[in-house]
Amino acid sequence: MASPIIKNEELAEEIDTIKAIYGDSIINLTTNSSSQSQSNPEVLPVTTTIVLQIPEHSNLSFLIGFDNEYPGTPPRVLGTASTSARGEGKKWVAILSDSVTTVWQPGYVCLYDVIVDAGERLEELRANDGEDASEEPDTATAPVDTEQTSVPLHVTLGLDHPPEWALSDPITEKRSVFVGRAAKVTSRETAEKYVDHLLATEKKVATATHNIIAWRIKQKGPSGTETVVQDFDDDGETAAGGRMLHLMQLMDVWDVVVVVTRWYGGVKLGPDRFRLINHAARDALLNAGFGKPESVDSNDKGKKKGKK
Asked: Whole-model pTM?
């Protein structure tokens, strides 16, 4: 049987972008359907159906439908395709539906943001379940050795809290994907720890082709003196870090670290890659509240801001 064809160009491009970041297995197309909404003429029929797997939750996948007007209309969570336990389907559907409601805006593709938001909700639920379990002593097992209890990574790194990144929209060009991140920092040491935390907690970022980094910080010393700290790391993408730092200088942003991740798609982009890297960096900076937004280029598709 031939693979279903996606006639919605924005949805097809969005799926290609997500697969480039997370791998082909994250989304599978199912047979297109136009019969699910025929009973209600006011609701457009579903024309494309996918099975979406949430990263880091391999036992959990969802059936999601789209009509021809997406992203003018929201994705529809039709049910679960697989769960880790029986009888929990409604709970997982409610979580994903809440994510769709939170991130979707008319005219803006949102599947990437849904994945990020749902992942955060599921991680929070997993953490809460772990806390509840820890409060109930198990008399059938030996006492827990508190010295062996795991410590959150940000605590190990000496951070007060996990980094709060603002993300750019994913940019796809000839199957290469670029995603920018920006976070407020007050010292070079904090910036380096934020990057270490990101690479340790985000496998897809750690295994990407390049992670271009730059920061500009007005760092205060013990005596109150202020030292300007600005630096970059190309991570193999020669001259990209310097150009990104130059962008930050032009935007006159301070006390911020920026990371632009590139997944190489197999086709060389030439000098155009620098424009795309800076586009992702600027988008992340604006989403984090740095700099002033300019008028949107008519050639650029508007997309929703990334999750922090």
From this structure: 0.61
